Fold Pectin acetylesterase-family hydrolase.
Amino acid sequence: MPVRRRLSSRWLARASALLALVVLPAAHAGYFNWDMVELPPESGASCGNGTPYRFFVNRTPLNHNVSLTFEGGGACWDQDACEGKGPYSASNPNGIPPDYMHSLQTMAAGGLVTPFTSRLDPFQKVRTQDWTMVYLPYCTGDVHAGSKVSVYDDVDPSAPRVQHHAGLANIRAAASWLRSNLGRADDLLVGGFSAGGVGSTVNYATVRDTLAPKGKSTLLADSGPLFNAPRASTTSSTQYPSLPLHQKIRPAWGLDEPGGMIPRLAARLPALDVNNLGSLNTGLARAYPQDRFGYLAFETDNVFSGFSYLDFHPEVHASDPEVQKQLVNQLWRTDLANWLPTLAAEANVDYHVPFFRDFNDAHCLSIVDFSGTGVEELGVASVLPFFDNLMDRGPVQRNYETDQVSDLSQTLSPIIQLLNWLENLFV
């Protein structure tokens, strides 16, 4: 769910200094500018600290296609994490400022965090860069999925954190605003990275039904997998390593409560098993058979896996960091092995799972650029042809790296090489 502690403050500071050299001055109104939308309190929308939820729209007159990106970054169910303290804590604990998309000191980095939110990206071209782009910041600590106000006082009872897990209301209100102000989309792309990968998946039905695209609708969920984790007396965390995490977040974020994510989705998706969050992937594919669903992940993701298991599997803790990574990755591989066959069972679901890239602890394929995201043994140079095939409705692709050496030598782009060098320089 996190993006290595929001790409890490060290990485972001060095990246911002470099990216400042290529960011174009912002316009002040109309097209090709990130316009801020502040949702009213009566919509139920809110950041975690109770301040207004704001999102951003970059319009184009060239077409009526719309691309939405859900931001990633941590999650919380205790006081420290909701206040932004700790390696996997919630992003933007103090809310979203009006100039969020015009600052290089935020995770969005002026839109350059991903090619899907950069109109004139200097590193990577994607077809949706001439679409209307929507950026949905993340400030609720609930992977854009919660619907509960919680009071956390486990660290400092004298100054408790009142946390508005309002992710679900934020996206519902944002989608309603977009429909009222943009009308029906032609083609629609719903995507996100890390926690936003989860958020794009759990909110896909809401966004898709509200915007009611006239043409194609597509999901591209990057490195935020909802793994299978059945709640049953016959299942265990050994079989399904994400089960303890899912058991934790369901009550913490109000997922099962009236009006929560699970009841709302169950009403829309007949194939959803309310006792298994991972069944959402199947539920979406069957409810929208004309749509395409693409899922991305690295086999060696060291961030989402750490978030998913370190608090719940004491057996993976080790004094040697490399040994700990190996133990954590074993659980990740178990979850992947349970997840991928359920995706492959649906005729409109694609996945792309390379082995590794030496950037951001092999977490997220779509941030900064697509270098190092290929599956060489299948002749797939990067995630870009996978994405193009998904959008073009080509033959379903199920790309999985079995050669676990080749990607170690994949060439990263000069920008990522430079960012890695800068990060290592200032360790």
Summary: The two ends are 24 Å apart (CA to CA).
